[in-house]
From TrEMBL:
The modification N6-(pyridoxal phosphate)lysine is found at K280. This is Serine hydroxymethyltransferase. Its cofactor is pyridoxal 5'-phosphate. One of its GO terms (molecular function) is pyridoxal phosphate binding. Pfam families: SHMT. It comes from Dillenia turbinata.
Length: 514
């Protein structure tokens, strides 16, 4: 509607200056002929990818085939929609727009302002937020930068952060460090201390978190994870933050789609600031958002109104603090995905994500697998493989060889992130393709077959290093035969389901076989 209203107000400029002279030129020559008589590069700029760069086009076709024939189980991945990809691949990529709507450092941004403002409005609507109480920055380029922008906005250098330990399900961007090395740059610029799971239950140990916070006195506590299959108790962490006068940052990168659909509890009731990526369960383009409280915070003891001061600090930290021009094509695609997030179809999808993950978890347990925390409340499962006598790295290699994408992951008690004891898997991507509960029972069977094959290869491999395992897997004909058999079963199952973002009939691979 906005474009239709604008179309009657905006006049189309002549191709050439000079009014009637330009019109006379256009009457005798086509626009293409005029341009070709002046320059020789415009034809290439408007040619297709397949014509201009067949090498890249072929790689994209191979990736399409992988997505069609494989099982995507990495919980941080999803298949975004055609409409989002059309927006991301649009002319909105061409514009520079440092600054914010209505206050740019470049001209010609009237439509960029329009789409960014629309994206902000839709972000608040998607998460059911009052615009008088919450604001949002949609310019952050990805999740890790978004978290760092919040830290630099609200903390002084070397002030203190507490977050879930990486081997217990946390994320690098929350300040991970070892005894000998600061792995994340966050731990260089700020002092960080982890809280952890109760290893006997697999749940966050909130009692110990509270005790540690009383000693460490953090200025900010992060409630968020990348490999935690249970729900956060935001109310409990809010109480800890209140005692320490700390900011509560909820990082809902993994679960934001579930939160938007209202199928799991929202952090917004308790958090001061909320960050999220936009491409995981939310199913948008690759980007991030930072939500922050605004307006009246409290009435102090003297009866004076105290207001939140997050908005200016966070906006300044994003630009000009840590970024230049935003990625307007991404913001445009995000606006589209946020509109989708308010539809009945989206809620039904997120409900199915949870049902599928529950079915998947039960099937894995039935097959003898140990899940960290014993199950799941969200979109992912974390399998502890130690009782099977194998590690996540070797299982990941076999899974990849049979076209199942999952990722090795640390579990409590691990000492190496490169050879961890777990595998992390999730249901958002395959649910987007139409998988239901029974399909995930079948996926669990494929996983079990891959683990058994990995155990067989390990037992018959000379040498104890991962590279020895991979060499044996790739060179021994008896293993290659079993891998090929399982891969064919996986592919035949996966190919039954719709592709997302492209029609399989348009694939070059399919066209060449017709």
């Amino acid at each position: 509607m906005a474009l239709r209203r604008l179309s009657v107000l905006v006049q189309k400029p002549n191709l050439l200056n000079g009014g009637s002279i330009g019109n006379r030129c256009m009457s005798s020559l086509s626009s293409e002929a005029v341009l070709e008589s002046r320059v020789n590069w415009t034809k290439q700029l408007n040619a297709s990818l397949e014509e201009v760069d067949p090498d890249v086009a072929d790689i994209i076709e191979l990736e399409k085939a992988r997505q069609w024939k494989g099982l995507e189980l990495i919980p941080s991945e999803n298949f975004t929609s055609v409409s989002v990809m059309q927006a991301v691949g649009s002319v909105m990529t061409n514009k520079y727009s440092e600054g914010y709507p209505g206050a740019r450092y470049y001209g010609g941004n009237e439509y960029i302002d329009m789409v960014e403002s629309l994206c902000q409005k839709r972000a608040l609507e998607a998460f059911h937020l009052d615009p008088a109480k919450w604001g949002v920055n949609v310019q952050s380029l990805s999740g890790s930068p978004a978290n760092f922008q919040v830290y630099t906005a609200l903390l002084k250098p070397h002030e203190r952060i507490m977050a879930l330990d990486l081997p217990h399900g946390g994320h690098l961007s929350h300040g991970y460090q070892t005894d000998t090395k600061k792995i994340s740059a966050v731990s260089i610029f700020f002092e960080t201390m982890p809280y952890r799971l109760d290893e006997s239950t697999g749940y966050i140990d909130y009692d110990q978190l509270e005790k540690s916070a009383a000693l460490f006195r953090p200025k900010l506590i992060v409630a968020g994870a990348s490999a935690y299959a249970r729900l956060y108790d935001y109310a409990r962490i809010r109480k800890v933050c209140d005692k320490q006068k700390a900011v509560l940052l909820a990082d809902m990168a993994h679960i934001s789609g579930l939160v938007a659909a209202g199928v799991i509890p929202s952090p917004f009731e308790y958090a001061d600031v909320v960050t999220t990526t936009t491409h995981k369960s939310l199913r948008g383009p690759r980007g991030a958002m930072i939500f922050f409280r605004k307006g009246l915070k409290e009435i102090d003891k003297k009866g004076k109104e105290v207001f939140y001061d997050f908005e200016d600090k966070i906006n300044q930290a994003v630009f000009p603090g840590l970024q230049g021009g935003p990625h307007n094509h991404t913001i445009t695609g995000l606006a589209v995905s946020l509109k989708q997030a308010t539809t009945p179809e989206y809620k039904a999808y997120q409900e199915q994500v949870l049902r599928n993950c529950s079915s998947f978890a039960k099937a894995l347990v039935k097959n003898g697998y140990d899940l960290v925390s014993g199950g799941t409340d969200n979109h992912l499962v974390l399998v502890n493989l130690k009782n099977k006598g194998i590690d996540g790295s070797r299982v990941e290699k076999v899974l990849e060889s049979v076209h199942i994408a999952a990722n090795k992951n640390t579990v409590p008690g691990d000492v190496s992130a490169m050879i961890p004891g777990g595998i992390r898997m999730g249901t958002p991507a395959l649910t987007s393709r139409g998988f239901l509960e029974d399909d995930f029972v079948k996926v669990a069977e494929f996983f079990d077959a891959a683990v058994k094959l990995a155990l067989k290869i390990k037992a018959e491999t000379t040498g104890t290093k991962l590279k020895d395992f991979v060499t044996s897997m790739q060179s021994e004909s008896r293993f290659q035969s079993e891998i090929a058999k399982l891969r064919l079963e996986v592919e035949e199952y996966a190919k039954q389901f719709p592709t997302i973002g492209f029609e399989k009939e348009t694939m070059k691979l399919m066209r060449s076989t017709l």
